[in-house]
Predict the 3D structure of the following.
Amino acid sequence: MHIPRLSRRLTRTLTVAAALLLGAALTVPLLSGSRKAEAATGGNDVIANLWLWPWNSIATECTNVLGPAGYGAVQVAPPQDSISVAGHPWWDIYQPAAYDLNSRMGTRAQFQSMVNACHAAGVKVYADAVINHMTGANQSSTTAYGGASFTNNYSYPSAGYSSSDFHFHPADCPQPDNQIHDWNNPAEVWNCQLLSLSDLKTGTDYVRTKIAGYLNDLISVGVDGFRIDAAKHMAQADLSAIKGKLTKQDVYWTQEVMPGGSGSLAPSAYEGIGGILEFNYASSLRNQFNGSIANLQTFGPSWGFEPSAKSTVFVSNHDTERNGSTLNYKAGATDTLANVFMLAWNFGTPNVMSSFTFSNNDASPPADANGYVTAVTCGSGWECQHRQRAIKNMVGFHNATRADTSVGNWWSDGSNAIAFSRGTTGWIAIDNGGGAVSSRTFSTGLPAGVYCDVIHGDYNAAAQTCSGPTVTVDGGGQATLGVAAKDAVALHVNARLGAGPTTSPTSSASPSASASPSTTPSTTPSVGGVSFTVTGAPSGNPIYLVGSVAALGSWNTSAALPMTASGSSWSTTVPLPANTAIEYKFIAKDAGGNVTWEPGSNHTYTVPASGTGSINTTWNGSSTSAPAPAVTFNANVSTIWGQNVFVVGSIPALGSWNTGSAIALSSANYPIWSATVTLPANTAVEYKFIKKNPDGSVTWESGANRTLNTGTAAQTVNATWK
């Protein structure tokens, strides 16, 4: 939808009406289901709405950002020629002057190149299609960005329309001024002018053919689908007939049908044609993130939404971010967390809005003196929410969990902190409150392993490394961690470190090189299993058992078996193949997933023919212990008033990557921030410096994690913020 300049009073009235129509819905149980939403048929489905970006910038973004991040499609602004209005407000692109592909955003050739580049990156292209009307009858300009010929007395020779191709009073519109007065009357909503825009007579075959010709032209250059602007202002029969004339029927097709009205004006009346933009979803999400997100446990059809398979969902779009009915980029961390939730939850096809900065409702995107949009530079007039690490990496979470439709392991604090799993493929915790969630144990539903927290780090699949904090999930699917205020933690199976099989290491701090399975093990299963008990293990972290056969993880520490503490001993019982010679060791894992191997040689054992046995042993080298050294951290960090600097890392002494438990540094020698911390001896540690901002949000320094080995002597770390 669009907002012409000369309808200011009516615009305000409609904004209030829309806000009322977009109110919160009832809370009743969620019905899960598959997600299609008339979206791309197969593959990734998250849409990046690069609203009003020029074509050349979108081409680059598809190649460098959208494709690598796993976005399935990009939604582009209306590509047809449009009126050029003084001051070049954003909404003039929603007033078509012709159907040629020369616009504020670029030429036809640039549009074609953009489509080609996006397809090469694996990203589909969806065009915003304005087909209900042409320019405003109340406009004086007769200039078009692409040079099309038109006048505002319903003459559009470049498009092939004359006055006979538009709706008028009294033959079509019952109102003498040709404007909509009764928003519940289909004759007015479909046949009168929306905000003085020249309303096309879409009931005629001539107009339908012209519109379909425009859409088919877009299909011919590779466009994969359409957002149908102002669909509610066209009869279902008209839209269905237009869609039926397309040369390709399996296109993404989602329709702007504002909530409110009944019968043929209800959003559900358009489901038979294609998908629906789910405005109630966006406004309800705003209400919860400005209230209590604990209510989101039932978020779905029971709230009055259209079916998941028909819904394109969003946190905001170009209309709602200006009229206040939804969140927008100005809400900061709250807007980010709402997008994170949308990408984690099991409903609809997500559309991520990427805004340009605005200080008034008519503001133009960054453009030259003639209104042509200039190249995008994120942070300089362009907000680029889709690039934020938390949002971009949650696209990967969405893709990893998309086929796993169930939601489980729900937890909340009853207010503004929640956690839930997506089957066995993903888990997330979101804290939208003003205080941190203290470290606690969550049921994640995930397989055991070490996971990259994709909210704060980028996962490198080739190297199986994470640039940020990691979280360890034990054999029972549990993880212990905290969540900072206005922050989140997200894990998924496609960002799991060391998930593949590993060979036995050869260093003295890990299994010896001879650790390999017997060449002829028996496949006869044990009955009672073999019990393992170890004493003398280092205190402070859980102990695990890992060994040379599959039942013991095949030396993969991510598959090691958790042991149960009883006093100073740790025990577990494992079914093992009978008559099999095994080697094994014990390891300690901290909350960040860092592993400390038992020193010395591998333990050995041959499983009896009965398959049952009992092993009681001591941790190698348990008779000696090294003193805990002091480590002094000196960080050169420039801050603004109200910011403070902390160090946080992979072991409990450094907060186990929980920013709420990070170690505060002193600013007594500013800009050097300092603290001395006692750390466990002979331990490999990863850490980073963070800034805690006056609003409670956290800024992580960039780049890879810092590392150190504590050894046994005191040491000093001198670093500069990166």
User: Anything to note?
Assistant: DSSP finds ten helices and 39 strands in the chain.
